[in-house]
Design a protein that fits this description.
Shape: elongated
Number of strands: 17
Distance between the termini: 47 Å
Largest sheet: 4 strands, parallel
CATH class of the largest domain: Alpha Beta
Radius of gyration: 26 Å
Structural class: alpha/beta
CATH topology of the largest domain: Rossmann fold
Helix content: 40-55%
Number of helices: 17
Bound molecules: zinc ion
Strand content: 15-25%
CATH architecture of the largest domain: 3-Layer(aba) Sandwich
Strand order of the largest sheet: 4-3-9-10
């Protein structure tokens, strides 16, 4: 198994990654607050986490991942009250749109999506542990974490605690706190708000305790990697560490990875600038989901990604270079010529691609390797495609695409629905005839992978192929 290096925010350095259990990675990723449709800044983090998960699998690890859904929280409660519905009714459509967005961007489903409201007992148990050990205290109807009791508080963010104390504004419902820095573990219920019974009276959990309790339930007290957006680093992740490590006396996560912010046209996203785009907003402006995924993965996760519509057009062009090469590859007949150059190109590509991934998920280098490969294969095709080359090149691309998940243009077109289906349907009868013929040749050569890809490509264009004893026939569906 190739060693992979990751930048650990805890300690701020590149480290060789080794999971606790050989061959098995346990990964926790902070999920969305299901309050409205997530924006592309959130999606950047989720796509990064998807690439991490896929890269770990590429290197042969089994991955068990949990991503929480925050379905009880101040904003949710206020909005549900205003809408006159319960929080479950209020959050349901946002949960649905979240999963739709993940699927549109080809983000692999993970093993566990725990919801906060289904894990109140686990949170109460952890708050009790913290109270017993003196890391927490009751004040009025609430329970707070006592930062003064936690000697290594701040080790993740390196935050200056004095500054936190000076900057902390105490909310009117938190006047009972011993110290302005302390944060809430359990909030006493207010009139009209959803509440759960607890040893401290009716109330609801604070946000931070949810991730501590649920990560422990699904991944154990100490797991391998914890991810989130850089805006979660302080205070959320710092507080998760404080809670879990004080309750358990063992480290929470061994590697902490944070995705940088996404800006739009060089500016921070904000409701007032009107640039808080959702996936739907970008699709409505004509961007394909495939190019959006490509754009989101193309910048290293620790660099700010500046979204611009012009860059989406560049992404489309980049993808087209790959598509064009694959089209040539499928349609070019194989010949009895020297296979050394194509073998060399495949070997070099796989080595470069793997090395780039292992280098803290250096996606710009990984994509650089893809385009060098595209260039090399085009050169090979110019000189005649050797026997077996189609299979070798496709195999290498498919393997890389286990991580990238952007190559399969036909399948993306199908997902995009009737609109882009019409665009793909612009294949002329002559084009269709050539493709059907190429498919028959591939079948005759027993290259069923290539034959299936052409059939998929035709299907995406609304063309159905029927194989009859007299040969293949086609019709538009
Ligand atoms: Zn979290």
């Amino acid at each position: 198994m190739a060693p992979i290096k990751l930048y650990n925010s805890l300690g701020r350095r590149l480290e060789a990654f080794e999971p606790l259990d050989p061959g098995h990675v346990r990964l926790y990723t902070c999920g969305p607050t299901v309050y409205d449709r997530v924006h592309i800044g959130n999606l950047r983090t989720f796509v990064f986490e998807d690439v991490l998960r896929r890269a770990l699998r590429y290197f042969g690890y089994r991955v068990t991942q949990a991503m929480n859904l925050t379905d009880v929280e101040d904003k949710i409660i206020a909005a549900a009250l205003q809408a006159g519905v319960g929080i479950g009714r209020f959050t349901a459509p946002h949960v649905a749109s979240f999963f739709e967005d993940l699927s549109t961007l080809r983000i692999e489903p993970v093993e566990h999506y725990p919801r906060a409201t289904s894990h109140i007992d686990e949170m109460i148990a952890m708050v009790e542990q913290l109270l017993e050990a003196g890391y927490a205290y009751r004040a009025d109807d609430s329970v707070f974490f006592r930062i003064a009791a936690d000697a290594d508080y701040g080790k993740l963010s390196g935050i200056d605690l004095e500054q936190v104390r000076r900057g902390a504004r105490v909310r009117s419902d938190e006047y009972g706190k011993e110290d302005a820095r302390d944060f809430v573990l359990w909030k006493g219920a207010k009139e009209g708000e959803p509440e759960w019974a607890s040893p401290w009276g009716p109330g609801r959990p604070g946000w931070h305790i949810e991730c501590s309790a649920m990560s422990q339930k699904y991944l154990g007290r100490t797991f391998d990697i914890h991810c989130g957006g850089v805006d979660n680093l302080f205070p959320h992740h710092e507080n998760e560490i404080a809670q879990s490590e004080s309750a358990n006396g063992s480290p929470l996560a061994r590697y902490w990875l944070h995705a940088e912010h996404l800006t739009v046209d060089g500016e921070k996203m904000s409701k007032s600038l009107g640039n808080c785009y959702t996936l739907g907003d970008l699709q409505a402006r004509g961007l394909s989901a495939r190019s959006i995924r490509y754009l989101l993965i193309s910048v290293h996760y620790r660099q700010q990604l500046d979204f611009r519509f012009a860059r989406a057009a560049e992404a489309e062009r980049a993808l087209k270079r790959i598509d064009d090469m694959r089209f040539r590859l499928v349609h070019e007949p194989e010949q009895a010529v020297d296979a050394t150059p194509v073998e060399a190109a495949v070997t070099e590509f796989e080595a470069e691609f793997g090395a780039a991934l292992a280098d803290d998920l250096n996606m710009s280098a990984a994509l650089g390797a893809v385009f060098r490969f595209v260039h090399d294969v085009n050169g090979v095709i110019d000189g005649g495609l050797p026997v077996g080359a189609r299979h070798r090149v496709e195999g290498a691309l498919q393997r890389a695409d286990q991580v990238l998940a952007v190559l399969d243009s036909g399948a993306w077109a199908e997902d995009a629905g009737p609109e882009s289906g019409d665009a793909a349907g612009a294949l002329s009868d002559a084009d269709v005839g050539r493709l059907v013929e190429a498919r028959s040749e591939a079948r005759a050569a027993r290259d069923f992978g290539a034959a299936d890809r052409i059939r998929d490509e035709l299907a995406a264009a609304g063309v159905v192929v029927e194989d009859t004893p007299a040969g293949s026939r086609w019709k538009r569906s």
